[in-house]
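Predict the 3D structure for this chain.
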Amino acid sequence: MVLSQCELTVLVTSTRSDSHNWNLVFLQLLIEESGHRVIGLGPCVPDDLLIEECRASRPDLVVMSSVNGHGYRDGLGAITRLRREPSLAELPVVIGGKLGVTGAPDTDAALRLLDAGFTAVFDDGNVAAFREFLALLAGQADQAGQERDIARRNRVTA
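Done. Predicted structure below.
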C-alpha cells in the first residue's frame, strides 16, 4: 500500500562507525513501501562520501541510522560537516536508532543533535514517528509541486 502523496528521493546511510546492514535494509523497505525512491549508501559511510553523494544525487531527505550506539557522536560530526556546505544547509536530515551506549533514550543528546542541524531525531527507532514525519515531508513536497505547477500555468496563460 502506497501511503505517500509525492515520491521523495531518500538517501539512507549509516554513520561512519556503524557496520550494520539489516537496519538499512529495513529502512529501505519501509521507505519504499511508503512510495519513495531510496538511494542506499551502506554501512560505515565517511562524512566526505555522505556530502559528495548529497551533492550528486540531490535527495529530498537523508536518513542516518545507527545500531552500534555511537549514533550521537558520529551523527554530530556528520551533521556539523554537512551543514557547513551552503548547498546542503537546508536539506532535511534525520537520525535514528541506538544513538547512545547506555541503551536508554537521552533527551539532552537528542536536543543537541537538533541544535546541531538535524531536522528530526528518532531515538531508539521510533518507527511510527518516522512514518508520520515521512508522510508530512511528502505532503509538503506535494504542496510545493502543486504551487510550482500553478505558477507555471499562470505564466503560460498570462
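The longest strand covers residues 9-14.
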